[in-house]
Write a structure and sequence with these properties.
Number of helices: 4
Organism: Acidianus infernus
Helix content: 40-55%
Strand content: 5-15%
Pfam families: zf-Di19 (PF05605)
Radius of gyration: 13 Å
Oligomer: single chain
Strand order of the largest sheet: 1-2
Largest sheet: 2 strands, antiparallel
Number of strands: 4
Number of domains: 1
Structural class: alpha+beta
Protein name: C2H2-type domain-containing protein
Distance between the termini: 22 Å
Length: 109
């Protein structure tokens, strides 16, 4: 089983590889890839949000550090694996926005 990045679509053989890629390449976005909200700190933003897509990003960003509820951690990890697994037919994020020095390129999935 493999996993795809919800932002750029790159494929990985393991969730660990995907999480490393996400932190290295997508953690400094100035807009949330889920809700398109302008954010100063993506990690804080995704931690505060309660919907599944934001929780998946939280998992990718920091492996749910700070979450003490073990049942919720397990549930979010299972959801992330389902949503990000190769072959998943679910559309993850409808609009992804990358910042290129004050210009935005919009991508639709």
């Amino acid at each position: 089983m493999g996993f795809n990045c919800p932002v750029c679509g790159k494929a990985f053989g393991s969730m660990t590889g995907l999480r490393k890629h996400f932190r290295k390449n997508h953690s400094n976005l100035d807009r949330c890839p889920v809700c398109n909200k302008k954010v100063n700190n993506l990690a804080k933003h995704v931690m505060r949000m309660k919907d599944e897509d934001h929780q998946v990003l939280w998992y990718l960003y920091n492996n749910l550090r700070g979450l003490r509820n073990k049942e919720l951690k397990t549930r979010i990890r299972m959801i992330a694996k389902e949503k990000l697994s190769r072959g998943s037919t679910e559309v993850h994020f409808k609009s992804i926005i990358f910042s290129f020095s004050n210009n935005f390129a919009h991508f639709k999935f």
